[in-house]
Amino acid sequence: MSATKGEELRGILHPSDTYIILDLEWNQPIPWIKSKVDPKELPGEIIEIGAVKLTAGATGISLSRPFHVLIRPVCYTIMNKNVSRVINKISSDLRHGLSFTDAYDSFIQWCGQDFVICGWGNSDLSILKTNLRFHDRSAILGKPFLDVQTLFSKVAEEGNDKRSVEYAVDFLRIPKQDDFHEAHRDADYTGRILKAIFEIIEKDGERTAGRRNSGMEPETAGISPKTKRCDIFRLEQYLFDPDLNVQSERRTDYFPSWEECCRRTFTEEALCPACGSPMKEELGWFRIRKSAFSLFRCDRHNLTAGRIRLKKNPEKKIYGTVTFKLIQPGEAVLTEDRYAEYSEFGAEGKPRAVVNHADGKAQEDEIGEEKCETIHSD
Ligand SMILES: [Zn+2]
């Protein structure tokens, strides 16, 4: 018996029973060689598609044999040295293979109908979309995306670091048989990582259930709250829609002070930029200097990062520009890092480095993003 959509299998609520783990290799332009396309439009041309299919059925999790196809590039036909060093290919290797559209069609046919697309990080997704557009194909993928790199950090390491596939393979003690950086091999390793993550979640679920049956509360069972997970793991919270790129922006009223502007704006209802529904607070608003940050979640569209940029008008009244942007789960780390700064240094933020200029006056050196943020007098 195979699982149906939304079915709970041994502790995980699966949005689909099929996961396509995709890995692409692409060549990059060489700056001094003129190409027929603007590199901004096509930052990389796909030369290899690799994938494996993970099936989560009632009898367990299985991985397919890898799908693998080589593509003959039409723009970047000379191997970029930096790429060559990583993926171990030379220019003559680029003379063989299918056209992009034939290769993509055979990949889509192999995928089947109902699946979640998975990748290690999200760079493959944006390259895939630029290649589809370049070849006059629709860039709408129509499937949810699962970033296995983020899932690995959160579940296996309980952190936020972006790790390499090889790091995760070592961490999870997955046997290494092949070299990395070949599309189908990286896809296969990523598939094994995802399988191992599912097994960790399942084991955790069983442990929690065991404790509950024995009448022990998780807190008293010697497990730290950090490692404690729910009986049913909702994988949906790690998915995002790769076809949605939505942001809303509005301006607040004028207020006499930063504090008043924040106090009022922080308590307003947050609405999803994609569907307008009220969102649940994930990480409440906090202010660092002249910016405030938050994370909210829409039931349908998942994570949204909120930001308020505080400004002053010529009459010295304070107002803010409030933006809500749909983000991928891996991007939440930017806000979480800000929150760590806020927890340590408060609204003043991390002290800025003091730079001594030739005129003897000490001047504050703004850090990072704040550097280009000015108070507009409009
Ligand atoms: Zn929504």
Order of helices and strands: EEEEEEHHEHEHHHEEEHEEEEHEE
Taking the alpha carbons of the first and last residues, their distance comes to 64 Å
CA-based gyration radius: 24 Å
Structural class: alpha+beta
The tally of structural domains comes to 2
Mean of pLDDT: 84
Bound molecules: zinc ion
* Largest pleated sheet: 7 strands, mixed
Q: What is the strand tally?
A: 17
Strand content: 15-25%
- What level of helicity do the residues show? 25-40%
Which outline best applies? globular
Low-confidence runs (pLDDT<50, min 5 residues)? 217-228, 358-378
- How many helices in DSSP terms? 8
CATH architecture of the largest domain: 2-Layer Sandwich
CATH-defined superfamily of the largest domain = Ribonuclease H-like superfamily/Ribonuclease H
CATH class of the largest domain: Alpha Beta
Molecular structure report:
This protein has 378 residues and is α+β, with helices and mostly antiparallel strands. It has 2 domains: 8-213, 2-Layer Sandwich (Nucleotidyltransferase, domain 5), CATH 3.30.420.10; 247-372, no CATH class. Helices cover 27% and strands 25% of the residues. The protein has 8 helices and 17 strands. The chain has helices at residues 81-87, 100-111, 123-134, 148-157, 165-171, 183-213, 258-266, 332-345, and strands at 8-9, 12-13, 18-27, 45-57, 60-63, 67-70, 116-119, 145-147, 233-234, 239-240, 247-251, 280-288, 291-298, 302-312, 318-326, 354-356, 362-364. The strands form 4 sheets. Strands 3, 4, 5, 6, 7, 8 and 10 form a 7-stranded mixed sheet that branches. A hairpin with a 2-residue loop joins strand 4 (45-57) and strand 5 (60-63). Helix 5 (165-171) packs across helix 6 (183-213). The longest helix has 31 residues, at 183-213. Mean pLDDT is 84; it is low at 217-228 and 358-378. Bound molecules: zinc ion (ZN). Zinc ion is lined by residues 272, 274-275, 277, 298, 300-301.
